[in-house]
Specification:
The chain is mainly α. The protein has a domain at 99-257. The protein contains 8 helices and no strands. It has helices at residues 2-16, 18-25, 32-67, 70-115, 119-143, 147-173, 179-219, 226-257. Helix 3 (32-67) runs antiparallel to helix 4. The protein is globular, with a radius of gyration of 25 Å.
Amino acid sequence: MLPALSTDLSVLLGYAQPALFLDSIFNPPQGKELVEILLRTLHFLAGIVWIGHLYFFNLVNVNLMKALDGPTKGKVIPQLMPRALWWFRWGALITVLVGLMYYAMYILKADANNAGKNVWMVLVVWMLIPLVAFAVEMVIVKKVNNGWVLAAIIVVLMMIMALAIIWWLKSQLASYGSNKSYSIGIGGALGLVMMFNVWGIIWPNQKRIISWTADNAENGTAVPAESAGLARIAFLASRTNTWLSVPMLFFMGASSHFSMFGV
C-alpha cells in the first residue's frame, strides 16, 4: 500500500503547485490565436454598445420624446443625446473597423490565397458594393417619407446588394469560397450600410437638432422649420438600421452555425 500511497501523494502535491495545475487545464492562445481572440472580443463589445444604443433609440427613446413637452425636451435632449450618440457612433465605427480586420486577416485571406487571388483587391471591391448601396439608400431616405414604401424599396436594394456580393465573391474565390466568407460578406456589408447611415445621415442631422434645441432652451431662439424634416430623415435612417440589424446578425451567426454557401 505504501508505494501506491506515495504515488497518490506525489500527484496531489504536483497539482497543488499552481503553475502545474493551471498548465494541466488551461492552454492560453499564443501569437496569431491571441490576436484573433482579442479582435473578436473587441468586435463583440463594440457591437453590443452600438446595437444596444440603436435599440434604445428605437424601442425607448422615440416614444419617450413624444411624451415630453417642449421645455422638458430642451433640458433632456442637450444632456442625453450628445452622450448617447457619442457611444452610438464610435461603437459603430469600432465594430466595423475591427470586423473588417478580422474578416480580411482570418477568413477572406485564406480563401483568396487558395484561389490565387489578391485578398486586398477582393476586399476593396467587396466594400464598394455596400458603399454604392448606401449612396442609393441615402437618396431614397431623403426623398421617400412613407415608412412602409421606404422599407419595401430598401428590402429590394439590400437583396440586390447581397446578390452582387455573392456574384463577386464567387467570381474571385470560385470553389474555394467558404461559408464564412459568403455569410460574413453579406452580414458585414449590411453592417457597413448601417455604419454609413450612422455617420452619413443620423449623426449630422441629430447634431444640428441638438444644437438648435439647446439654443432654444438657453436663449429662446426659434428652432428652424427644417428641424422637423431632419428629425424625420434621421428617424427613418435609424429605423432602417434597426430592421437591417436582424439579417446582419443572422448572417454573422450563420457563418459558423448554419452552412448556406460555399464549403
